[in-house]
Each structure stands twice: as structure tokens, then as C-alpha cells.
Description:
The complex is a heterotrimer. By secondary structure, chain A is an all-alpha fold. Chain A has helices at 5-27, 35-38, 57-81, 83-111. Chain C has a domain at 264-475. In chain C, 74% of the residues lie in helices and 2% in strands. Chain C contains 20 helices and 4 strands. In chain C, the strands form 2 sheets. A two-stranded antiparallel sheet of chain C has the order 1-2. In chain C, strands 3-4 form a two-stranded antiparallel sheet. The radius of gyration of chain C is 21 Å and the shape is globular. The interface between A and B is large, with 51 and 45 residues.
Amino acid sequence: MNEYIPILIFLIFAFLLSFGAFFFSIFVGKKSSYAEKNSTYECGFEPFDDSRGRFEVKFYLVAILFIIFDLEIIFLFPWAVAFSEIGLFGFLSMMFFLFVLTIGFVYEWMKGALDWS
Amino acid sequence: MTIYFFYFFSFLIISSSILVISSNNAVHSVLYLIFTFFNSAILFLLMNAEFLAMTIVIVYVGAIAVLFLFVVMMLNITESEIKEGFLKYFPFGLILIAIFISELFLVFNFQNFPIPENVKINVNEAMLTESSNTKLIGLFLYTDYFIIFQISGFILLLAMIGAIVLAQSDERKLKSTSSINQKKVRKKDIIKLN
Amino acid sequence: MIYIPEVFMSIGFLIILIISVFVKKNQNIVLGYLSLLLIFLTQFFVLKDIFLFEEIFNNFFVIDSFGSFLKSVILICAGFVIYFYIIVKNDSSLNRSEFSMIILISIIGMMLMVSSNDLLSLFVSIELQSLALYILVSFSKEDFNSSEAGVKYFVIGSLSTCIFLFGSSLIYGLVGSTNFSEISQFMSDQYSVPLLLVVGLIFILVSLSLKISAAPFHMWTPDVYQGSPSLVTAFLSTAPKVAVFGVLIRVLVYPFGEIIVDWGKILVILSIFSMLIGSLGALRQDDLKRLMAYSTINHIGFILMGLVPGSEDGITAICIYLIFYITMNLGVFLFILNMKRDQLNVTKIKDLSGLYKTEPLIAGCLALLFFSMAGIPPLAGFISKLLILNIVIDNNLFFLAIIAVITSVISAFYYIRLVKSMFFDSPTEELDLLTNSQSKLLLSIFGLFNLSVIFYPQFFLNLCASITLSLFALR
Lengths: 117, 194, 475
């Protein structure tokens, strides 16, 4: 447990610093607000619609593929740590796992899922 | 000492998860959700489950929360629509709460909760000999439990195929022309004088 | 050990996946035939070892004849669905190479499900199967209904997953192992079974009833059946049901056989609700696929009844019922796939009217299938219903038998209404003529099978009895 104490101290310090900056600007800063200043800035005219636009579905594809490979990497960590003790069987079992996912990777490459035209 | 940390972080989890369902802005909800994930990772750390804590930070905070943000952006819902069904589903939620609280009551009021003897992996014993639990997971996952590991590999492969099936747009095939081919077109190919 | 059918099928699947990228022309047809070939070869592997008993992969899976038999049934279902896919002209949205491959990977999941011997391996294989089914349901991208059905099915399916995990974590906490043999050992050592274990089992039961759509956990079924493409509905109503029934039988009879008093009552409630809702709900439907969903719920209730005593002959009856149910369902869905007007698929019941005038052979076969579903003698559906009722009465569950008979009569009403509209109503608008000769042939085979079973019921009885024996004798 003790090795996480520095991280905790770091977090507390980061928290204090960011909140300090936040509150100081509220209380110490000079404020003069009026309607024009608070309105949405868009080259001088009223904004047409909501600023939160829709994303194209391509982004989801990339995000989901990212999650899959992220999980694959997660599986690599314990394997690397225990590598010296699991022997040839553990090595081959990981190699088959990687083989299956590499086939998936080749598949999506050939299908053009990674193209960004 | 650890028990105070536990209470502190579980208080943070509960309050931030209440904020997830009560905040008006869906993007704020996702940010509170990230905070909840982060705190639950700390709870795992307190229980010495370092690998799980790291997994939660990398997978949930790093990847799934980003996807959540995408989904929230995609949905394009206004604030009033989120609140609409609240009263309608409230009784159902109460029933669920009642079920889960009675479950917990049952578990903790259990007089003779037997400590299992015939466990495959004796965690306490393993913790004494080994220091890191990431290594322990590695020792079992790739040898004794390798079939589970391979099936999860297939699940990931299926998820990959599924994402391509559902989300890849075929637009490219329909109406794009290669600019190189356009450049190659010569006048004599398309205009014919008889 | 390494030659088990699942391993063979997974390797074959990977090879087909790589081949699929290089096939340029008629992708879906070529891959459909390749998948059929793989299914045939796997069927051979399954049948080769059908009398083998072996615990494999550190006791995570078990090979026995009960599992092998169900695997073979699942492979036959999937083979028929892929064959339908090849012979019937589908919507263009289904004509992508991935369709048959996702069916392949889902049957890998189902085959692992019926042979799993551990809660952990059961969980991952259920996930493999259901993830594939979510993708299949929302497969046609242009169709809004399909996507809606996919979202509904996905939400319900993930709920079922959560419940399953919760239940198995309770069981693991008490027993200290997820293995079925260890759980069974624990149960026989105990004087009184702890309440918490029963709660865990109830959670698992609820999760599995969500998967087989037993009432009161059936709400998703009509919407999903109606929304998804007809071919997927045909698959959804046959193969996964067989697989989940296999899991249900294995989980209830083997590790939790000691507490039959507890789960028996729950099954009685589930089956009564399913039969009532399945028969009453179908009365007011006007869509054929929706009606088939309610008919499925009704049949599920009937099948669950056979599991209530947890005895050997009950499970034999269930196996027979499953075989006949599959032939009826596949036949009806083959017709629905071919039901077109002006090249567009229609699924309303009133479109059936006057079918006899234009297509007498098809109308006859369809009538046979509907009568068989209603359980009218001497068709296959009658034999299977009779067997189940026999088991129920033998175990002195008279009220259950009475409810079953009453609901059968109600459900017979709507099947007969369908047949009446086919034969005696005058057509409003005629359907397209069925030009597909392979579909005609298959449909008549399904009809004839249902008609002719009465001459050789002993074959199925002996087969299923010897299969079920492995579940009880070898432990």
C-alpha cells in the first residue's frame, strides 16, 4: 500500500492547485459582464443551431476498434509479468490469442475499415 | 487507516453516481461517470487488486468513457427529454433497489457463512508466496484457464467483425471516382468524330 | 482431445474469414457454400464421437452423448438456415459476406454452451453466442426496424448477462468453485442447502429464461422477431433455443439436482405463464412473424413442463419435442421467406388468404405444419405434446396438465384460423408465385416429415432415450 502514498499526495496537491486557481479567479478577478459579452460569439451574427453537432459513424468504428486492441494489450501485461514461470504452454496460448486477433486485424484492413477517405 | 480511505472513496463513488443520474447535461453525466470509475479503481487498489485497478483506468476511463461521450454527442437529446421518463420508471427503480438491498441484507446476515475449502486457487496462500497479483493472474490465466482466454479472444474477434458489419459505410463504393483515373481521361477517349 | 468439433470449427472459421477477403464475385453465395461445407465436416466430427465421454480442458468442458446430440441438432438448424440463405433471394442488405460467418461463430458459441461444465466457461460461451445474435438481428442496416430490434435485444441480453454473473458470483462465494462437479459435490455434502445458493440458482434461471423467452420474461420476443430479417428470425427461433435448453437441463439436473423442490416450482410457474401468454397473446396478432413469436413462447412453456420432474424420460420427451419443433418452425419460416408480393416481402396474416387457389401444394404443406404446431393427431406435434403430457400426468401434476390442454385448445384456434384463411377465404391480392423449386421441395419434405413421424416414433424415442442416459448414468 505504502508505495501509493506519493501518488495520493500528488493528487491532493493537484486538486488544491487547480481549485486554488479556480477560486482565486472567481474572487479576486475583476468582473464586468453585459449581454453582448455573454452571448455566443460567432462572427458577429446569431448562432444558427446547437453547437453540439453529430459525429459521423466512422469515428465509432475507430473508437470500437481501439477498445478491442486496448483489451488485447491489457491481456499482455500479466503474461509479460508471469512469462518466466508459465513455460512453453503459456507462450503458445498467448501466441494463438494474438494469431486470432491478427487475423481480425488483417480482415479489417482488407475490408477497408481503416481507410479514411 | 485503510478503512477511512475506503469510506472516503466509497462516499465519493456514491455521490458522483447520484450526480450521474441527476445532472441535466448529458456530457456532465459522462464526466461524473468517469469520476466514479476512477474512484472504483482506487477501491480496488485499497484491496491490493492492482491489476484490476489498472484495467479499470485504462479500459473504462480511457476507452469506454470516450465512447460514451461519442454516444452522448450522437444522441442529440435535449435536457427535458432526459427527465421525461423519470416518474414513470421511478417505482420500477424502487423495486430494484428493494431487491438488491434485501440481497445484501441476506448476504451479511448470513450466520454460518462457510469459507470454501475446495477452491481451485487459494488466494490467501498465493498472496503469501507471491507479492504481485498481476503475476498471479498471469500464472493461472494462460495455463489452467487458457480455454477461457482463447474464447475471449474469439469474442474480441467477433466484436471486430460486428463493428465492421454495423458501422462501416458503403458510401465509398457507391459514388467516389479515383482522381488519378480522372486525370488519365484524354480528349480522344471521350469525344469521337465520325 | 484436440480433435473436438469446436476446435475444428474454430480453425475452419478462421480459414473462411481469411478466404472471404479474397473472394470478389458473388461473395455471399461462395461463403455460404463454404460455411455449409464446414458445418458438414463438423457434423461428421460430432457424430464420430457421439458415444464418447470425456472431460476436457481442465474440466471446463465435457463431451458426452447428450451434448453431442444437441450439437448435431444445432448444426442441422444452422445448416438449414444457411441453405435457405443461399437458395432464397434475399434483400440486398443481407447480401454481405459476413452473414454466414456470424452464424458460424454463433454456433461455435452454442456448441461450447451445451458442453460446458463450469459456470465460467458457460458464461463466456453464452457471451460468444449472444454477441453474434445481436449483430445478426441488426444486420440489415437500411431497415430501421432491424436496428430497433437489435437495440432492444441487446439491452435485454446485457441485462440477462448481468443477472447471470450476479447469480454465479453468489454460488462461487458459497461453494468456492464454479465447476459443476464441485458444486454437485458440495450439494450432496450439505445437510440443508443454504438459502443464498437457491437465490443464486434463481438468478441463473431468470437469466436463462430471458434467453429462451419464457414468460414473464418474454417481452422482447414479439418485437425482436418482427423487426429482425425473416432469415434471422428463423435462426433465432430454433438453434439458440436448443442450446439454452441444453444448458438449462445440464445446470438443473446435474449440479443442482438435489434441490429439485426449489427449482421445480419455479419451472411450473414459468411454464404456466408461458403457455397462457403464448396462446392468449397470439389471438389478436395480424403479423405472421409476431404470431410465430407467441407460438414460440407457447411451445417453450410446453417444453419447460417436461423438465419439472427432472427425470430421465422427461428429458427424452424434451429432446423429441425440440427436434419436431425445429422442423415445424424451419418449414413455416421457409414459407415466410418466400412470401412476396411484387418482389417485396410481406408478412401479414391476411396475405395468406386464398393461397390454396394459387399454390395448392404449398398451402397443403403449410397446413400440415400449422396443424402439427397445434398438436392435431396424427402429426409430429401431437406425438411430442402427448409425450410431455404423459410425463406430467405420471408425476401427478394434474393442474399443470389441465392448463396445458386448455392452452393447446386455445392455440389450436389460431392455427386453424390461419389454415381456414388459406383454404376458404377469397384472396384480396395474390402473392407472387413461388418459383423457387428448391424451396418447394424442402417445404414438402418438412411437411411430409411431420406427417410420417407417426409410422416410426419408436426410432426417435430410442435415439433420445439412449442420448439422455449419458446425462444420468455416467456420473
